[in-house]
């Protein structure tokens, strides 16, 4: 296994991207060309179980979803912190483990706080 | 990178790309056959022998359907949604090592698009981009059901990504590398991670189900509440892309599961097979045949997990949104952290003792 | 070649009042959203339209809008002789046509005063086919409920078993769903030769399947999670709304017209009336209602076994038995108001007749549809639930739109 990577080593990803993008664009164009197109006002309405739609669907949505998103950002950053630690875990030994235990204790106390605050109560 | 190597790499990519698409296509057929078997009926059996041409017929139908865009939808985002979903699904296979290596003309080329030292991070990065496809498509439709489905999909995917990432950390602690190839190589000789990480495996596979929006976590597209979920308004190949992306994701996540926990292209007795083959066919041809067998083992494992996805889908009911979030946040995250602590203790304390005892 | 553009005629004024809404932009609070669930929705069990006001995923109010399957049963009945109404009765609750026929026919027989002349064999056959149909109806209810919860396979398993029932019923009268088998004063035909044996074989086949079903669906952990404590219907509410059948029994009241009224040969039969006990959740939740249905399937099997025993031993098939012997030539009841009721699969199915004594047609024939009364409770029990729970609640009430709208 080589340990140093040149930018050129990642060239195949570009090839794969090109392949995927080409496939998608081609398929989209083909399906757009060969399918029929019959338009009418009723048909172009958004589907709402056969009832005429009143207003815009993009109404304000519950704040709970945003809380989840914010929590995700917080926690994911902390997960990312763990990756370099985990890779070097066996070299860091005991000290690293204790440090990470402290880190995780802090993380869990924050986690406990948000649970007690009722952020993760979905029923209300 | 030399030209020959690059050409071989490109060929490998092309083959894997084609295989991914083929497997995704035939997963739809497989799903319906499995469903038929479980539900005591036949499944598709009209198009070709045993209905083997059914996916082609479906794809043809998708192409010839009307490419419908609702009047109130945001046209470009509406098109971009499924394209993004498909693109991210197709990009993931780049770092997965499907086999050992191919020897050709003095070169040794790995059966993998890119051997990257950040392989697993790449997979996570691309997978988390996948939620954009769903979110953009659902929002662009300007439909209440689609929007609800899209929001559900987004919050579900990001919630389960955390525990997924945490469950991987335990593996990384044991292997000390982010490269999937290295993780696989370390599992050589029946030393599979599943023996050491049963809890991590359960967490990971649960999260994989949630990330792929499969039953029992198929809330974003749950038919009985949200009609079609985020793809309510979609038709023709755009709908096909969403469904296709789901099956590709299923296959890729199965491949990742078998790479991380089930030894990837390792199989019992592979050293013996390797020795026999190289002595029979010579160093180059024997090695290539051995690689091929390893790749077949890898695909067999991955396809078993694809089957597992289907098995679960046709057996279990689905969760409710709050139960899903509770499971993700209140059960899986603490469990994953516990798993890390257990692994750390095991590696630091138990491993030296066991090694000392064995010697 | 471009395909022709078809412009369908669209006039907003045609639709202005056809789909009324209770909630408008003026009456909604800012964070609330109106979601129309139905009529074209996969899990409203037909063409029910629910106007759902949600705040996020939490339901604030549910307003059912009916009438999408209205077929003027009652108006039709006012211009048809009594015996010709039976096919229309079939089409009310189309998954349990035998039970509806049984209720209707008994009502007319009582008005004519011939209910005691009916041969015992006919009565046992009626009960047998009605219980078969009850099984079929409950299979649909449980199966589609599992489908609503997200489990696909139980539905198809139950459809497979229901198919056996439908084949048997087809064998008796030639129709799979809408039988017109039970006639006023008798039956269309006697049971076909060999029916009894086939039926007992089916019962033997079905018993382990029911256990399997209970293990797969009812006792499944996710299923319990989805249905326990959800859509709790307290007994007083159930009684106030006039709920009957499994919905009422799920709330814990042992009220079954087969026992309360004791019509037909039911008093001679030995069976239990299962009620909800709140075993895994609150009394009267969705799980209880479903458990009652599964338990009723077992009881139906018991009833069928006893009927078959009677039919083969005490009232066996004879060469000169005529199931139409008591069928009146002219059906003209005296002038009266009459209400007859029976336990259909979904609850109390009643028929109110007003006759003038001069003609063969009823002046008024009103059906008291159990699904309609059970459905009325939906707004009350789904307030504050999640959107996913609403689907679970609709399914647990087990409505058939044909009966709700008539």
TrEMBL record, chain A:
<comment type="subunit">
    <text>NDH-1 is composed of 14 different subunits. Subunits NuoA, H, J, K, L, M, N constitute the membrane sector of the complex.</text>
</comment>
<dbReference type="GO" id="GO:0030964">
    <property type="term" value="C:NADH dehydrogenase complex"/>
</dbReference>
<keyword id="KW-0813">Transport</keyword>
<feature type="transmembrane region" description="Helical">
    <location>
        <begin position="65"/>
        <end position="86"/>
    </location>
</feature>
<comment type="function">
    <text>NDH-1 shuttles electrons from NADH, via FMN and iron-sulfur (Fe-S) centers, to quinones in the respiratory chain. The immediate electron acceptor for the enzyme in this species is believed to be a menaquinone. Couples the redox reaction to proton translocation (for every two electrons transferred, four hydrogen ions are translocated across the cytoplasmic membrane), and thus conserves the redox energy in a proton gradient.</text>
</comment>
<dbReference type="Pfam" id="PF00507">
    <property type="entry name" value="Oxidored_q4"/>
</dbReference>
<feature type="transmembrane region" description="Helical">
    <location>
        <begin position="13"/>
        <end position="34"/>
    </location>
</feature>
<feature type="transmembrane region" description="Helical">
    <location>
        <begin position="92"/>
        <end position="115"/>
    </location>
</feature>
<keyword id="KW-0472">Membrane</keyword>
<dbReference type="InterPro" id="IPR038430">
    <property type="entry name" value="NDAH_ubi_oxred_su3_sf"/>
</dbReference>
<keyword id="KW-1278">Translocase</keyword>
<dbReference type="GO" id="GO:0048038">
    <property type="term" value="F:quinone binding"/>
</dbReference>
<protein>
    <recommendedName>
        <fullName>NADH-quinone oxidoreductase subunit A</fullName>
        <ecNumber>7.1.1.-</ecNumber>
    </recommendedName>
</protein>
<keyword id="KW-0874">Quinone</keyword>
<dbReference type="GO" id="GO:0050136">
    <property type="term" value="F:NADH dehydrogenase (quinone) (non-electrogenic) activity"/>
</dbReference>
TrEMBL record, chain B:
<dbReference type="GO" id="GO:0016655">
    <property type="term" value="F:oxidoreductase activity, acting on NAD(P)H, quinone or similar compound as acceptor"/>
</dbReference>
<keyword id="KW-1133">Transmembrane helix</keyword>
<dbReference type="GO" id="GO:0048038">
    <property type="term" value="F:quinone binding"/>
</dbReference>
<feature type="transmembrane region" description="Helical">
    <location>
        <begin position="239"/>
        <end position="262"/>
    </location>
</feature>
<keyword id="KW-0874">Quinone</keyword>
<keyword id="KW-1278">Translocase</keyword>
<dbReference type="InterPro" id="IPR018086">
    <property type="entry name" value="NADH_UbQ_OxRdtase_su1_CS"/>
</dbReference>
<keyword id="KW-1003">Cell membrane</keyword>
<dbReference type="GO" id="GO:0003954">
    <property type="term" value="F:NADH dehydrogenase activity"/>
</dbReference>
<feature type="transmembrane region" description="Helical">
    <location>
        <begin position="332"/>
        <end position="354"/>
    </location>
</feature>
<dbReference type="GO" id="GO:0009060">
    <property type="term" value="P:aerobic respiration"/>
</dbReference>
<dbReference type="Pfam" id="PF00146">
    <property type="entry name" value="NADHdh"/>
</dbReference>
<dbReference type="GO" id="GO:0005886">
    <property type="term" value="C:plasma membrane"/>
</dbReference>
<comment type="function">
    <text>NDH-1 shuttles electrons from NADH, via FMN and iron-sulfur (Fe-S) centers, to quinones in the respiratory chain. The immediate electron acceptor for the enzyme in this species is believed to be ubiquinone. Couples the redox reaction to proton translocation (for every two electrons transferred, four hydrogen ions are translocated across the cytoplasmic membrane), and thus conserves the redox energy in a proton gradient. This subunit may bind ubiquinone.</text>
</comment>
<feature type="transmembrane region" description="Helical">
    <location>
        <begin position="76"/>
        <end position="99"/>
    </location>
</feature>
UniProtKB/TrEMBL annotation, chain C:
<keyword id="KW-1003">Cell membrane</keyword>
<dbReference type="InterPro" id="IPR029014">
    <property type="entry name" value="NiFe-Hase_large"/>
</dbReference>
<protein>
    <recommendedName>
        <fullName>NADH-quinone oxidoreductase subunit D</fullName>
        <ecNumber>7.1.1.-</ecNumber>
    </recommendedName>
</protein>
<feature type="domain" description="NADH-quinone oxidoreductase subunit D">
    <location>
        <begin position="148"/>
        <end position="406"/>
    </location>
</feature>
<comment type="similarity">
    <text>Belongs to the complex I 49 kDa subunit family.</text>
</comment>
<dbReference type="GO" id="GO:0050136">
    <property type="term" value="F:NADH dehydrogenase (quinone) (non-electrogenic) activity"/>
</dbReference>
<keyword id="KW-0520">NAD</keyword>
<dbReference type="GO" id="GO:0048038">
    <property type="term" value="F:quinone binding"/>
</dbReference>
<keyword id="KW-0472">Membrane</keyword>
<dbReference type="Pfam" id="PF00346">
    <property type="entry name" value="Complex1_49kDa"/>
</dbReference>
<keyword id="KW-0813">Transport</keyword>
<comment type="subunit">
    <text>NDH-1 is composed of 14 different subunits. Subunits NuoB, C, D, E, F, and G constitute the peripheral sector of the complex.</text>
</comment>
<dbReference type="InterPro" id="IPR001135">
    <property type="entry name" value="NADH_Q_OxRdtase_suD"/>
</dbReference>
<keyword id="KW-0874">Quinone</keyword>
<comment type="function">
    <text>NDH-1 shuttles electrons from NADH, via FMN and iron-sulfur (Fe-S) centers, to quinones in the respiratory chain. The immediate electron acceptor for the enzyme in this species is believed to be a menaquinone. Couples the redox reaction to proton translocation (for every two electrons transferred, four hydrogen ions are translocated across the cytoplasmic membrane), and thus conserves the redox energy in a proton gradient.</text>
</comment>
């Amino acid at each position: 296994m080589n340990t140093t990577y040149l930018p050129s080593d990642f060239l195949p990803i570009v090839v794969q991207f090109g392949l995927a993008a080409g496939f998608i664009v081609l398929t989209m164009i083909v399906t757009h060309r060969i399918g029929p197109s019959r338009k009418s006002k009723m048909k172009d309405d958004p589907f709402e179980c056969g009832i005429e739609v009143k207003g815009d669907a993009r109404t304000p949505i519950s704040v709970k979803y945003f809380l989840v998103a914010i929590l995700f950002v917080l926690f994911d950053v902390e997960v990312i912190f763990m990756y370099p630690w985990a890779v070097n875990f066996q070299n860091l030994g005991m000290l690293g483990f204790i440090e990470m235990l402290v880190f995780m204790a802090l993380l869990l106390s924050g986690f406990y706080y948000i649970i007690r605050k009722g952020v993760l109560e979905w029923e209300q | 990178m030399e030209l020959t190597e690059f050409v071989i790499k490109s060929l490998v990519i092309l083959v894997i790309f084609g295989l991914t698409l083929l497997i995704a296509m035939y997963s739809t057929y497989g799903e319906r056959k499995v469903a038929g078997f479980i539900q005591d009926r036949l499944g598709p059996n009209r198009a070709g022998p045993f209905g083997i041409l059914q996916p082609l017929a479906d794809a043809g139908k998708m192409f010839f359907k009307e490419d419908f865009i609702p009047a109130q939808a945001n046209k470009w985002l509406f098109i971009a949604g499924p394209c993004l979903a498909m693109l991210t699904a197709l990009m993931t296979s780049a770092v997965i090592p499907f086999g050992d290596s191919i020897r050709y003309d003095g070169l040794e080329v790995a059966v993998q698009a890119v051997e990257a030292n950040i392989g697993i991070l790449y997979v996570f990065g691309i997978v988390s981009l996948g939620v954009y496809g769903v979110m953009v498509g659902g929002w662009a439709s300007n439909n209440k059901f689609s929007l609800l489905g899209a929001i559900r999909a987004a919050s579900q995917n990001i919630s389960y990504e955390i525990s997924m990432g945490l469950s991987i950390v335990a593996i990384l602690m044991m292997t000390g590398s982010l490269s999937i190839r290295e993780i696989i190589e370390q599992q050589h000789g029946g030393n599979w991670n599943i023996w050491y990480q049963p809890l991590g495996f359960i967490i990971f596979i649960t999260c994989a189900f949630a990330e792929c929006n499969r039953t029992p976590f198929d809330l974003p597209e749950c038919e009985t509440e949200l009609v079609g979920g985020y793809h309510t308004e979609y038709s023709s190949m755009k709908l096909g892309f969403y469904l296709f992306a789901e099956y590709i994701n299923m296959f890729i996540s199965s491949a990742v599961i078998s790479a991380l926990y089930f030894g990837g292209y390792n199989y019992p007795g592979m050293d013996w097979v390797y020795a026999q083959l190289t002595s029979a066919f010579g160093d180059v041809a024997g090695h290539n045949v051995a690689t091929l067998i390893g790749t077949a083992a890898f695909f067999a494992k991955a396809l078993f997990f694809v089957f597992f996805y289907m098995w679960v889908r046709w057996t279990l009911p689905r969760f409710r949104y709050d139960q899903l979030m509770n499971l993700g946040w209140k059960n899986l995250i603490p469990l994953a952290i516990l798993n890390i602590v257990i692994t750390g203790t095991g590696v630091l304390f138990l491993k030296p003792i066991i090694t000392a005892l064995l010697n | 070649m471009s395909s022709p553009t078809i412009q369908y005629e669209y006039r907003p004024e045609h639709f202005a009042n056809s789909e009324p809404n209770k909630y408008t932009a003026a009456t909604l609070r800012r964070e609330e959203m109106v979601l129309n669930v139905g009529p074209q929705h996969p899990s409203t069990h037909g063409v029910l339209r629910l106007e759902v006001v949600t705040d996020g995923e939490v339901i604030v109010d549910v307003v059912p809008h009916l009438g999408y399957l209205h077929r003027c049963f009652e108006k039709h009945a006012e211009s048809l002789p009594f015996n010709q109404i039976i096919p229309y009765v079939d089409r009310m609750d189309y998954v349990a046509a035998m039970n509806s026929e049984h209720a209707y026919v008994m009502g007319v027989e009582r008005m004519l005063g011939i209910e005691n002349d009916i041969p015992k064999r006919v009565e046992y056959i009626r009960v047998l086919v009605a219980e078969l149909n009850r099984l079929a109806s409950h299979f649909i209810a449980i199966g589609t409920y599992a489908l609503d919860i997200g489990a696909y396979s139980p539905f198809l398993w139950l459809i497979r078993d229901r198919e056996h029932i439908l084949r048997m019923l087809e064998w008796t009268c030639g129709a799979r769903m809408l039988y017109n088998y039970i006639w006023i004063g008798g039956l269309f035909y006697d049971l076909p030769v060999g029916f009894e044996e086939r039926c007992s074989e089916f019962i033997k086949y079905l018993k382990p399947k029911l256990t399997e079903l209970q293990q797969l669906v009812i006792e499944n952990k996710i299923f319990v999670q989805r249905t326990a404590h959800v859509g709790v219907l307290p007994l007083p509410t159930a009684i106030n709304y006039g709920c009957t059948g499994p919905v009422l029994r799920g709330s814990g009241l042992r009220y079954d017209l087969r026992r309360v009224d004791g019509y037909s040969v039911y008093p001679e039969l030995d069976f239990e009336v299962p009620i909800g006990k709140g075993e895994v959740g609150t009394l009267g939740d969705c799980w209880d209602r479903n458990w009652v249905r599964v338990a009723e399937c077992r009881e139906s099997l018991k009833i069928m076994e006893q009927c078959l025993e009677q039919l083969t031993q005490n009232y066996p098939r004879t060469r000169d038995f005529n199931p139409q012997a008591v069928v009146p030539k002219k059906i003209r009841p005296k002038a009266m108001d009459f209400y007859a009721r029976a336990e259909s699969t979904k609850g109390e199915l009643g028929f109110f007749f007003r006759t003038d004594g001069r003609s063969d047609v009823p002046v008024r024939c009103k059906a008291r549809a159990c699904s309609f009364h059970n459905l009325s409770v939906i707004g009350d029990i789904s307030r504050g639930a999640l959107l996913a729970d609403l689907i679970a609640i609709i399914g647990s009430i087990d409505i058939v739109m044909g009966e709700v709208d008539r």
